[in-house]
Amino acid sequence: MPSSSTNSKNRAHETSPSGSTGIPYLLVLSGDVVGRVIRLKPGKRYVCGRSRNLDIFLNDENISREHAFFLTTEAGQTGLTDLSSTNGTLVNGKKIQSIILNDGDRISLGNVILRYSLKDDLEFVFQQELFEKATKDPLTGAYNRAFFMDALQKEFNFHQRTQKPLTLMIFDLDNFKAINDVYGHVNGDIVLKSLAGELINCLRREDLFARFGGEEFVAMFRNTPKEKALRIGEKLLELVRNMNFTLPMVEFKTSVTIGLATLENDNVSTPEELLRMADQNLYAGKKAGKDRVIG
Length: 295
Hints:
Blueprint: H1 4-10, E1 23-30, E2 37-39, E3 45-49, E4 56-57, E5 68-72, E6 78-82, E7 89-91, E8 94-96, E9 98-100, E10 106-109, E11 112-119, H2 121-135, H3 145-162, E12 166-173, H4 176-183, H5 185-202, E13 208-213, E14 216-222, H6 226-241, E15 245-247, E16 250-252, E17 256-263, H7 271-287, E18 293-294
Parallel strand pairs: 3-4, 17-18
Antiparallel strand pairs: 1-2, 1-11, 3-5, 5-6, 6-9, 7-8, 7-10, 10-11, 12-14, 12-17, 13-14, 15-16
């Protein structure tokens, strides 16, 4: 936690944070996922940077792998400390080494701008809901197509630079039209919600899962070669096969078909081409009898 002498040298303003109340959180203003809300829990050290294994991953090449960390005390004060980053950490336009943050402070790390806020429960929930509405599918809770496409472009650029494999899977629920025709669209929505929930729960934190449209979902797997992705796909097929979909007066099972495509050795030149490859493999899986993964 920063000392008072260091803090006084670096403060952008002199308002004392002592006695501040509210939930401390960070709001992404630009350079990353705009509107993203990151809650800072007292006693927990949050390291942020370009490494994907950190508490706060910020997707910007001008940020160091381990750039800075936040630490909130039980009394509600939040300290920010730079970790000898290459491009430094700025608060309200001034470079800092270590500082106690005040409500409304703007933090610049590379091209990412964060706002530190202390708000009551209602304001915090409101910010979360704004982000959820902008990025999530309201029925299933999966990310929406717009969010996924934006993330795919960033990941595609990253993997082209690093040459690490990037895999996409497109999931299509088998015989969904028949489910809607027999049980109705309301029950069809229940099936989609249950399916998405099970798939989200079994994926890793770094995987991205989204509803692509209708009964189609898509997942993105970072640093995952084709052989490993095919094994993951087989496990996901088995997961869906074992699901029991319970509706009023009936219980049944169904399956999915998965089309898979992997970016390796510059085999595709655009994110759209990678998606088309996965979609073509999905179509081939449907034509071959469904309930399978094709890559």
